[in-house]
Amino acid sequence: MQRIAPSSLSSLADRISYEQSFLNFDPSTTGPAVTSSLPLLQPLLPTLLDAVYTKLLSYDITAKAFAPRQQTHESDAKYDGDNSNVTELNLNHPNIKFRKTFLKSYLVKILSTTDWTPQAPIWTYLNNVGLMHTGDTANPGFAHRAKKPSLRVEYMHMGLLLGFVEEAVAGAILASTADDWTPEKKAEVILAWNKLLWIQNDLFARHYTVDWDVGTVPKAAPQSRVSASASELANSKSLSLVVIGVLIGALLVRLSLI
Q1: Contacts of 13 (CB under 8 A, 6+ apart)
Q2: DSSP alpha helices (H): ranges in the chain?
Q3: pTM of the predicted model as reported, rounded to 2 decimal places
């Protein structure tokens, strides 16, 4: 039995190492299986991006993240888009074009990665993608966003988006009629993408949820929620003792009445 110290999971490399072990994600075979889909997926990226943002614009709760101005990483004078109402957004709107550029870069980054070991830069990148969507700009890696409006998209929507992307990628792979895309290869690559996206899902979740083992609270949540979560985290053992004490007291009272 492998022993995993909960506290070790606060280290990104240790966390990835555990997740790769659990999911049978072999850096020497699973990662290359993902990147082997580059020739197939790259020409389909425009279609995939349109499908993703058509879906996101189908609901006001997901579209509202794109209504504020979407900024570049350069000066404040260079804005893409404007303060639009969600009903004004469409695939040709400047705000959506800017976000499509980011998603394209994200997918190309994955498809061009050569190092999938737990210490590899790709995991820092994927972790930062999760962190940036919490609205937390205090991270040193986000210095370029320090004076810009925060970007916060709730975890539920990020998880759903990963599911949608996985379906789109799997669909493209299954639809391939190329001779070198045998059923065995299709299965291998789809499984590899599945493992990768589940790891990405965790690299979102870790920044949004309370982790009682590691001792973390959500990033960039409203202060009242953070304070409540921190308080719960600090007092969880004391609370358990109080509950146990109340139950024992009630039991003793009950017994005394018999």
Answers
A1: 118, 119, 123
A2: 12-23, 30-35, 38-41, 45-56, 60-63, 94-111, 121-132, 155-175, 183-208, 223-256
A3: 0.77
Matching residue, tokens 């979560």: 229
211 burial type by CB count under 10 A (0-12 exposed, 13-18 middle, 19+ buried)? middle
Distance in angstroms (rounded) separating the CA atoms of residues 75 and 10? 34
Q: What does the pLDDT look like over 4-61, one tens digit per residue?
A: 999 899 999 999 999 999 999 999 999 999 999 999 999 999 999 999 999 999 999 9
Tell me which amino acid residue 233 is: L
Closest CA to 220 of 121, 143, 153: 153
Residue 51 is classified by DSSP as: H
